[in-house]
Amino acid sequence: MRWAVVFLCLILCFASTPSAAAGRALIILKSADLTEMQATIASLEALGAHVGHVIPPRTLIADVPTQVESQVAALPDVAELHRGAVPAAQGDAAVGVAVWNSLLAPQQSVVNGGNAKPLTGDAFEAPMEARVSVYGSNAPGTYQTSSFMVGKVAVGVVLPESSGGTEDWTPERQSDVLSRIVSGLDWWVQKGGSAAHLTFYYEPRFGVPTQYEPIAMQGAADEETWVSDIFRGMGYTSGFTRFDRARAYDAYLRRTYHTDWAFALIVVDSLNDADGQFADGHFAWAYVMGPYAVMTYDNDGYSISRMSVVATHETGHVFGAAARSSSACLMIV
Question: Angle at CA 82, nearest 5°, toward 80 and 83?
């Protein structure tokens, strides 16, 4: 695992950050077709722009040099290009517009956790039978879902909804969660710069049915029960463990969005919970090298206002950073 940690530290500590002169822009496409979206992204890259975030089916967040803005706006599938805040949209661009407006707002520092407990002891490793061949192939396969933080990454943002219990998501809070996750992963896009050339593709999976109220469970201690049920609610029932189901979902994400890597990020509603933690005291964890990570809505003392901090941290673990190493890199930057 050492090579993954070293690579991640190098990306964090030495890679260049995109020039502010490039200029961030929201691009709304005309078509909701994924193939046309990929063609437009390729055209943008050819013009010297870089797409950092893709919120299907029609919104892109990109660094667009001012000198090519008119060429970007003239691309066949580009409907709108915005540099500033955009009025709330309706339809299939609504979530992407909300994410964009949130990114324009001031963000909390990555190393500022308020009154929360330190993010330590949250880097888990999958059992050996679930990690077979993670390092044994030149080409990424089923078990290599997040070997290097470079290139294109698909992120399944999974928000489970119980059939009963004390927690109920609202559309507004679901959109807010996605916005804060994008903000957290934008930190990686900016720090990775041209060396990592990161593009995150998001698949919001809101209201995934589950028979359990996840925040009422033990947490990491019994996740084979409740996490497996979440993936079952998404239609992934094959395999013997939650890792089998998570990797099957990751494989779907890679195939669908044509990305290099993929992972699932499960966010458990804890709005009505007393402390935003599971019974075992955990509120966020990730499996080193994937296939998934878990956070609560409140994330202990970090709260929803600092969810981006937790998302940044846990994504580092997903891509191979052990607890001490990822914290050190975050602090150095």
Answer: 160
Residues 216-232 pLDDT 10s: 999 999 999 999 999 99
Phi, psi of 314 (to 5 degrees): -65, -35
Are 251 and 173 in a shared domain? yes
Work out the average pLDDT over 308-320.
95
Are the beta carbons of 231 and 292 closer than 8 angstroms? no
Q: How many domains, in total, are found in the chain?
A: 2
Task: Please state the φ and ψ torsions of residue 332, each to the nearest 5 degrees.
Answer: -60, -45
116 located within any domain? no
- For the stretch 78-107, pLDDT in tens is 999 999 999 988 899 999 999 999 999 865
Using alpha carbons, select from 322, 307, 217, 221 the residue that is nearest to residue 265. Answer: 307
Query: Are 140 and 260 in a shared domain?
Result: yes
Give the angle subtended at the CA of 185 by the CAs of 289 and 250, to the nearest 5°.
40
Q: Which of 312, 316, 308 is nearest to 287 (CA)?
A: 316
Q: What is the DSSP letter of 117?
A: P
Structure-token pair, residue 188: 């990686």
How much of the chain, in percent, has pLDDT values that exceed 90? Answer: 75
Q: What is the pTM of this model?
A: 0.88
Instruction: Note every long-range contact of 137-143, with CB atoms under 8 Å and residues 24 or more positions apart, other chains counting.
Output: 140/260, 140/261, 142/247, 142/251, 143/247
Q: Decide: helix, strand or coil at residue 119.
A: coil
My answer on whether 10 and 132 are in the same domain is no
Tell me the C-alpha distance between 28 and 37, whole Å.
10
Domain with residue 81: its CATH number is 3.30.70.80
- pLDDT tens profile 259-270: 999 999 999 999
Span between the terminal Cα atoms of the chain, in Å? 22
Cis ω for the linkage preceding 127 (within 30 of 0): no
